[in-house]
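To whoever picks this up:

The nightly regression suite flagged RmlD-like substrate binding domain-containing protein as changed. Nothing in the input moved, so I suspect the structure step. Input below, exactly as stored in the fixture:
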Amino acid sequence: MKILLAGSGDIAQRIPPKLSGQHQFFGLKRRPINLSNGITPLIGDLTDVAYLDRVFREGFDVVVATLTPDSATEEGYQKAYVDSSAALCLAINNADHKPKLVIWVSSTSVYGQSSGSWVDEDSPANSATFSGRALLQAEQHIFALPCIAVVIRFSGIYGPGRTRMLDQVLAGVGRPDQPEQWSNRIHSEDCAGVIAHLIRMNEQQLPLSKLYLATDCQPVTQHELRNWLAARLNVSLVEEYANPRSARRCSNKKLLDSGYKFTFPSYREGYLALIEELNKSIP
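Regenerated output under the current build:
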């Protein structure tokens, strides 16, 4: 099976080891430098329809899009998500050999709910931010594809190279217990695991939903998480108020019902693994 990794960054490069060796992987990126795990690089721009038309002559069976904006600006999100999804969909519609499956990675930032309420795949996505609107517009492009198309909304991703929370705790930055600020997280290994899981389901001709919310099994408040980390890192915290960006809890029930087994089911397992790696790096 030929799999196109549209956007071949950290998450995409973790996918090949989670699938059988019978698959061929191609990584499409403007600068696909040092791709790992046997991914064949393809140099190009995902907003260039003429280029994508040539790419799809290769006859890909699966397309996985894991894109990130060059900047956290309205223009950056427009190009990374809206323009790229529109170009990708046009190229797929033009292709003689259409993929059997397209997986598009989105984000739980499309939700605007607050007050600690729970959200799932059926909750209204009503983000008032430009980033949330761009993500939703891209999702609509993907849902209109003439093949099986799945959108995954990941919550906050952490893991090797994604240690912002650990770095803040090591710097002594805590958060007050009120108002509650909920943190929904997923380890980067589980991000790749979820994508591989859905590809296997498609291979086995199992039914796929159009939308999955992918987050670990235990939402936690910023206050509780930072204090838990501080105890294990042996540091003291000074509580600093920050405008809460998220006050919701995300449910992964649909993903669990599909049979996915988390490598890191909660922040505890995931951050303990990161702390162990951190300790190994200290002389």
